[in-house]
Write the structure tokens for this entry.
Amino acid sequence: MILKVARLGFPSVRTAAKPVALEQVKSHDFQKLVDDMIETMYEYHGVGLAAPQVHLPIQLAVLEVQNHPRYPDMPPVPLTVLINPRVTIVDPATADDWEGCLSIPDLRGLVPRATEIRVQAHGRDGEPLDFTARDFHARVIQHETDHLNGEVYLDRMPNLSQLGFLDEWQRFLMPRPPART
Ligand code: NI
């Protein structure tokens, strides 16, 4: 089932999400929610979606970069479900790139992100995950885990003059359309 996406202004987008109780992860309702979030991410051509974006203030996010028509040059990221993720910066060096967000339609902004992170989380069946992510993969995860803290990419922008509408930017500045997560 495709879920309605909350936009900036809806309280859950600006609320720190609560941890998921791991004993409920294998329940039918939780697994259905994960499937619905994945379906919603695909429907709107996002590369990630966090539960606060579907009106639920819980620490759950999904992401995938696979044969994406808008990012053919990006290394693929397998479908990943993150429950209660913790992100540690491995390499504090940052890189700038354009980001968008399904909760902030039509806008894109230039956002610095750490280039290498460690991610500790639980997967969709509650199994522990511990991996490092780099570059675009690390960017998508940082964007999604920010959502779980009630933050959006606008908060990370040092220079709001680098915020604009996608169709205007595309005509002048950008070599490729950016991520929507
Ligand atoms: Ni987003």
